[in-house]
C-alpha cells in the first residue's frame, strides 16, 4: 500500500503532466499565410480565430488589419505555430468573394515567384474579378459522332497522345488544312469520356467565334468561351459554368489558360507559334510556360499544334541536342482534302516600273482570272491606315508621335494615328519644324490598297478586315461571314492569315511583306516565313490547288524562298545555323530587362548605376548586352533602356537573384523583367 505522501507525489505528478499537456495545446495556434490585396512583394501571416478555425481553408478570402487600415486578402497556406508568436488576427471571412481552388492557389504561388511580380499582381492576372451568377442549366454532355475519318498521320498522332499516362508535350506539326482541328475534337471527346476537362487555346480573341462554332457543332452547349473581350455578365456566366461543372471544354486566347476547371485532363495550344501567346505588358507571362506548369502539376499531356511551329518548339521536338523523352513529335504531311499545297509565285517589285501603283500586273491578272471563274480572293497587307509615312517636303522633317517618336500614319478619316501609343490627332499639312504647309504622305498601307482594288475592280464586292473595321470579335465574325456568303475579295491585315477555312478561296495575294522582314528583331525572318506559310494556307482548301502571288523586293531572301517551296525543314536548318552563330534561342535562354522612365536624364543616370553594378558581378556562363536604348526607345511618353541576358536554363535562378539585388530605381523609374521574351523591341 502507498503511504499518504506517496499518493500525494503521484497525484501531484499526474496533475502537473495534465497541466503541461493542456498548456502545450493552448500554446499552439493556426496561422494563415495570406496574399494581401496590395502591391507588396511578400505574403503576410495572421492568426486564424480558434472558435471558427474549421471554416478557413486555402483559397478563402478574408478581411485583415493592415497598419491602421483594413484590407482584403486570400489564404494560400495554413500552418500551426507556437502561440507565443505575436501576430494580428483575421477579422472575418469575406463572403462576397468566391473561394479559389487549391490548384489555382498553387499556380498563383508559382506564378509570382517565377515572373517576379507581387503576389497580388499574380492573383489579379490569374483570378481577376469573379462573381457567381444564377444559371438554369442541366449537366448534359453528349457529343455528336464525327462525320470525318482520320487518315493514317492523324490517327497515329491521336493514338499516341491518348496513350500518355503522365506529363508529355506533344507537338503536332501539320500543314495548313491537314485536319488538326479534327484531332483536337477527337482528343476533347476522349478527355470528356474519361470524366475530365480540357482547355483549348487559340491565338486571338477574333478567332474564338470560329473555334466555338466548330466545337459547339460537335459538343453542343458544353463549350464555354473565356477572354477579356466578354462583358462582365458573360464572363461571370462562363466562370459560373466552370465552377458548377457544367462545361468540360473551355476555349479562348491566352487568358483561358487560367480557367479553374476541376479534374483537368489536357491542354491544347493551337497555332502555337503565334506571338500573341506572349503577354506584352507586366507581368509578361508566356502561355506555353504556364500551360506546361499546369500540365506537369496535374501530370497530364500538353499538345502544341501548328503548320509552322516556332523554331524553339521544332528544335526541342526534333533535334537530339535539345530533345527530351517528354517531347513527342507528330507530323501530318497531307491536307485532309488530298489537294496539293498551293503554288507560290514571287513578283520582284524592284523591276516594277510604276512605283505609285501598288498592285503588280501579275496580281491584277490573277485576281481577274479568279473573279471570272467565280472564285474568291484574299489579299494580305499587314499595315493599317492609308499612308504610314508623313514628312515635310521642304525641310525633310518626319512627322512623328511625340510620345514614342514613331511616324504617324495617315488614315482616310483625315486623322493621323500612332499605332504604338493608340493616339489619334486631326490631319494637318503644317510642318511643326519649319512652319510651312509642306507635309506629304508616302508609303503603302491597307486603305490605299483598298482604293486601288476599287479602281481596278469597281463592280465587285471588296471587304476590308483590320482593327479599324473590326473592333471586336463579333465585328470580325460578321465580316468573315459576309465574305464567305457573297464577298469576292477579302483585303486584310494578319487577322486574315490565321485559321480561316473558306473552300472557295483560290488566290492569295501578299503585299508589303518586306516591312515584316526588316523589323530589327532576331525573330523577323521566322515571323515572315510563318506569316507567308499561314496566309498561303488559306488558298486551295476546296477541290482545286490554290495559287499565291507574293510581291517583294527581296525575292532571294531564304525566308521567302523557303516559303515559296513550302520547305520548312530547309528554313529551320538555315535559321538554326544563324541563331547558333549569334547565340540566340534555342541555343540560349533570354531575359530582357526593360527600364523605363518619363525623364530621360534620370533614366540615363540609373542605367549608368546598373552598368557599374553589372561590371562588378562575376557571372560564369552568363553574358549580357546593355544597358542601352531599346529599339523602340520611347513608348507612351516613357523612355526605354534594356539589358538582354543570355544564359542557359540552369542559370535562370541566378539571373532572378541578380535582379533582386539591382540598385533601387529612382521614383517613377520602372524595372520590368521579361523571361523568355518573344521580341526584343
Polypeptide structure, described:
By secondary structure, the protein is an alpha/beta fold. The protein folds into four domains: about 20-125, GIY-YIG endonuclease (3-Layer(aba) Sandwich), CATH 3.40.1440; about 150-330, Rossmann fold (3-Layer(aba) Sandwich); about 345-385 and about 445-580, Rossmann fold, CATH 3.40.50; about 590-675, Ribosomal protein S10 (Alpha-Beta Plaits, 2-Layer Sandwich). It contains 18 helices and 27 strands. A seven-stranded parallel beta sheet has the order 8-9-7-10-11-6-12, sandwiched between helices. Strands 13-23-22-14-21-20 form a six-stranded parallel beta sheet, with helices on both faces. It is globular and about 90 Å long. Residues about 15-25 have low confidence and may be disordered.
Which structural traits does this protein have?
7-stranded parallel beta sheet; Rossmann fold; 24% strand; 6-stranded parallel beta sheet; globular; alpha/beta; GIY-YIG endonuclease; 18 helices; 27 strands; 681 residues
- Per DSSP E runs of 2 or more residues, the count of β-strands stands at 27
What low-confidence regions span 5 or more consecutive residues with pLDDT below 50?
A: 15-25
**Sequence of strands across the biggest β-sheet:** 8-9-7-10-11-6-12
Rg, alpha carbons: 30 Å
* Broad shape: globular
Q: In CATH, what is the homologous superfamily of the largest domain?
A: P-loop containing nucleotide triphosphate hydrolases
Q: Which percent range fits the helix content?
A: 25-40%
How much of the polypeptide forms β-strand, as a percent range? 15-25%
Please identify the structural class as seen in this structure.
alpha/beta
CATH topology of the largest domain: Rossmann fold
Described by strand count, sense and barrel closure, the largest sheet is: 7 strands, parallel
